Amino acid sequence: MSVDEILVEAGVARMTLYKNFGSKEELILATLQREDKLFRQWLASFVEARSTRPADRIENLFAGLHERFASEGYYGCAFIRASVEFPDPVHPVHRIAKEHKEMIRSYIRGLLSKANAENALLLSEQLYLLFEGAITASQLHGEPWPAEYARQAAHHLLTAQKKFEASPAQGLRRQPKY
Fold first, then answer.
1. Alpha carbon distance 107, 172 (integer Å)
2. How do residues 91-129 score in pLDDT, each as one tens digit?
Protein backbone atom coordinates (compact mmCIF):
# COMPACT_ATOMS: atom_id res chain seq x y z
CA MET A 1 0.00 0.00 0.00
CA SER A 2 1.39 3.39 -0.93
CA VAL A 3 1.54 6.41 1.35
CA ASP A 4 -1.02 8.13 -0.90
CA GLU A 5 -3.45 5.22 -0.44
CA ILE A 6 -2.90 5.38 3.33
CA LEU A 7 -3.63 9.12 3.32
CA VAL A 8 -6.86 8.66 1.37
CA GLU A 9 -8.00 5.75 3.57
CA ALA A 10 -7.16 7.61 6.80
CA GLY A 11 -8.51 10.93 5.56
CA VAL A 12 -5.49 12.88 6.75
CA ALA A 13 -2.98 15.20 5.15
CA ARG A 14 0.55 14.05 4.34
CA MET A 15 1.94 16.53 6.87
CA THR A 16 -0.24 15.03 9.63
CA LEU A 17 0.98 11.54 8.80
CA TYR A 18 4.64 12.53 8.91
CA LYS A 19 4.09 14.62 12.04
CA ASN A 20 2.85 11.52 13.86
CA PHE A 21 5.03 8.98 12.06
CA GLY A 22 8.38 10.11 10.70
CA SER A 23 8.21 7.67 7.80
CA LYS A 24 6.15 4.94 6.20
CA GLU A 25 8.31 2.38 8.04
CA GLU A 26 7.50 3.98 11.41
CA LEU A 27 3.81 3.75 10.52
CA ILE A 28 4.27 0.06 9.64
CA LEU A 29 6.09 -0.57 12.93
CA ALA A 30 3.32 1.13 14.92
CA THR A 31 0.69 -0.86 13.03
CA LEU A 32 2.48 -4.14 13.66
CA GLN A 33 2.94 -3.35 17.36
CA ARG A 34 -0.79 -2.67 17.65
CA GLU A 35 -1.66 -5.81 15.68
CA ASP A 36 0.66 -7.89 17.88
CA LYS A 37 -1.00 -6.61 21.05
CA LEU A 38 -4.51 -7.27 19.69
CA PHE A 39 -3.55 -10.73 18.43
CA ARG A 40 -2.01 -11.74 21.77
CA GLN A 41 -5.17 -10.68 23.59
CA TRP A 42 -7.41 -12.44 21.10
CA LEU A 43 -5.37 -15.66 21.06
CA ALA A 44 -5.19 -16.08 24.82
CA SER A 45 -8.84 -15.22 25.38
CA PHE A 46 -10.10 -17.45 22.56
CA VAL A 47 -8.05 -20.49 23.52
CA GLU A 48 -8.37 -20.23 27.28
CA ALA A 49 -12.11 -19.54 27.25
CA ARG A 50 -12.79 -22.86 25.55
CA SER A 51 -10.96 -25.27 27.81
CA THR A 52 -9.03 -25.52 31.04
CA ARG A 53 -7.05 -28.54 29.83
CA PRO A 54 -3.77 -27.53 28.15
CA ALA A 55 -3.99 -30.48 25.74
CA ASP A 56 -7.39 -29.29 24.50
CA ARG A 57 -6.11 -25.76 24.14
CA ILE A 58 -3.74 -26.84 21.37
CA GLU A 59 -6.63 -27.86 19.13
CA ASN A 60 -8.44 -24.66 20.11
CA LEU A 61 -5.56 -22.72 18.54
CA PHE A 62 -6.66 -24.05 15.18
CA ALA A 63 -10.37 -23.59 15.89
CA GLY A 64 -9.50 -19.96 16.63
CA LEU A 65 -7.66 -19.62 13.35
CA HIS A 66 -10.66 -21.03 11.48
CA GLU A 67 -12.95 -18.50 13.11
CA ARG A 68 -10.50 -15.69 12.41
CA PHE A 69 -10.05 -16.67 8.76
CA ALA A 70 -13.82 -16.77 8.27
CA SER A 71 -14.41 -13.38 9.90
CA GLU A 72 -15.41 -10.27 8.00
CA GLY A 73 -12.42 -8.14 7.14
CA TYR A 74 -9.72 -10.78 7.62
CA TYR A 75 -7.00 -9.90 5.15
CA GLY A 76 -4.23 -12.33 6.04
CA CYS A 77 -1.22 -12.13 8.27
CA ALA A 78 0.35 -8.68 8.44
CA PHE A 79 3.50 -10.19 9.95
CA ILE A 80 4.09 -12.60 7.08
CA ARG A 81 3.55 -9.83 4.57
CA ALA A 82 5.85 -7.47 6.48
CA SER A 83 8.63 -10.06 6.66
CA VAL A 84 8.39 -10.57 2.89
CA GLU A 85 8.33 -6.82 2.20
CA PHE A 86 11.35 -6.28 4.49
CA PRO A 87 13.44 -9.46 4.11
CA ASP A 88 16.61 -8.16 5.81
CA PRO A 89 16.65 -9.94 9.22
CA VAL A 90 18.11 -6.87 10.96
CA HIS A 91 15.48 -4.46 9.65
CA PRO A 92 13.15 -3.31 12.46
CA VAL A 93 10.01 -4.34 10.54
CA HIS A 94 11.37 -7.83 9.92
CA ARG A 95 12.46 -8.12 13.56
CA ILE A 96 9.02 -7.23 14.92
CA ALA A 97 7.43 -9.77 12.56
CA LYS A 98 9.84 -12.44 13.79
CA GLU A 99 9.20 -11.49 17.44
CA HIS A 100 5.47 -11.96 16.85
CA LYS A 101 6.03 -15.41 15.39
CA GLU A 102 8.38 -16.29 18.26
CA MET A 103 5.57 -15.39 20.65
CA ILE A 104 3.34 -17.96 18.95
CA ARG A 105 6.07 -20.62 19.18
CA SER A 106 6.54 -19.82 22.85
CA TYR A 107 2.80 -19.97 23.53
CA ILE A 108 2.57 -23.41 21.91
CA ARG A 109 5.60 -24.64 23.89
CA GLY A 110 3.98 -23.35 27.08
CA LEU A 111 0.75 -25.20 26.39
CA LEU A 112 2.65 -28.43 25.74
CA SER A 113 4.74 -27.95 28.84
CA LYS A 114 1.59 -27.53 30.95
CA ALA A 115 0.22 -30.69 29.32
CA ASN A 116 3.44 -32.55 30.27
CA ALA A 117 3.96 -33.58 26.66
CA GLU A 118 6.87 -35.87 25.89
CA ASN A 119 9.24 -34.35 23.32
CA ALA A 120 7.46 -31.03 23.82
CA LEU A 121 10.08 -29.07 21.89
CA LEU A 122 9.82 -31.23 18.77
CA LEU A 123 6.03 -31.38 19.00
CA SER A 124 5.80 -27.61 19.49
CA GLU A 125 7.83 -27.00 16.33
CA GLN A 126 5.59 -29.37 14.36
CA LEU A 127 2.45 -27.65 15.66
CA TYR A 128 3.97 -24.24 14.96
CA LEU A 129 4.55 -25.26 11.34
CA LEU A 130 0.93 -26.42 11.08
CA PHE A 131 -0.21 -23.10 12.56
CA GLU A 132 1.86 -21.02 10.14
CA GLY A 133 1.01 -23.26 7.21
CA ALA A 134 -2.69 -22.79 7.89
CA ILE A 135 -2.23 -19.01 7.96
CA THR A 136 -0.31 -19.00 4.69
CA ALA A 137 -2.69 -21.38 2.90
CA SER A 138 -5.72 -19.43 4.08
CA GLN A 139 -4.18 -16.19 2.90
CA LEU A 140 -3.38 -17.73 -0.48
CA HIS A 141 -6.81 -19.34 -0.99
CA GLY A 142 -8.93 -16.74 0.78
CA GLU A 143 -10.78 -19.48 2.66
CA PRO A 144 -10.84 -20.75 6.27
CA TRP A 145 -10.57 -24.49 5.49
CA PRO A 146 -6.76 -24.75 5.99
CA ALA A 147 -7.26 -24.17 9.73
CA GLU A 148 -9.56 -27.20 9.98
CA TYR A 149 -7.11 -29.44 8.15
CA ALA A 150 -4.31 -28.17 10.40
CA ARG A 151 -6.48 -28.87 13.47
CA GLN A 152 -7.03 -32.44 12.27
CA ALA A 153 -3.29 -32.90 11.72
CA ALA A 154 -2.60 -31.43 15.18
CA HIS A 155 -5.10 -33.89 16.64
CA HIS A 156 -3.21 -36.77 15.00
CA LEU A 157 0.11 -35.49 16.34
CA LEU A 158 -1.31 -35.15 19.84
CA THR A 159 -2.92 -38.60 19.65
CA ALA A 160 0.37 -40.11 18.48
CA GLN A 161 2.06 -38.31 21.38
CA LYS A 162 -0.29 -40.05 23.80
CA LYS A 163 0.54 -43.39 22.20
CA PHE A 164 4.24 -42.64 22.61
CA GLU A 165 3.69 -41.96 26.29
CA ALA A 166 1.64 -45.14 26.68
CA SER A 167 4.13 -47.50 25.07
CA PRO A 168 7.75 -46.69 25.98
CA ALA A 169 8.75 -50.35 25.78
CA GLN A 170 8.31 -50.27 22.01
CA GLY A 171 11.15 -47.78 21.62
CA LEU A 172 8.87 -44.99 20.44
CA ARG A 173 10.45 -42.38 22.69
CA ARG A 174 13.49 -41.95 20.49
CA GLN A 175 13.71 -38.66 18.66
CA PRO A 176 14.05 -38.85 14.89
CA LYS A 177 17.46 -38.16 13.42
CA TYR A 178 17.59 -35.24 11.04
1. 26
2. 999 999 999 999 999 999 999 998 888 888 999 999 999
pLDDT tens digits for range 1-37:
566 666 566 676 666 666 666 777 888 898 899 999 9
The amino acid occupying position 121 is L
Torsion of CA 176, 97, 4, 74, to 10 degrees: 60
CA distance 152 to 172: 22
Does an H or E element contain 42, and which? Answer: helix 24-50
- Domain residue spans in the chain? 24-166
Question: Per CATH, is 24-166 categorized as 1.10.357.10?
Answer: yes
**Which pLDDT tens digit goes with each residue over 146-176?**
999 999 999 999 988 766 444 444 444 445 4
Q: Which long-range contacts (CB under 8 A, 24 or more apart) does 10-18 make?
A: none
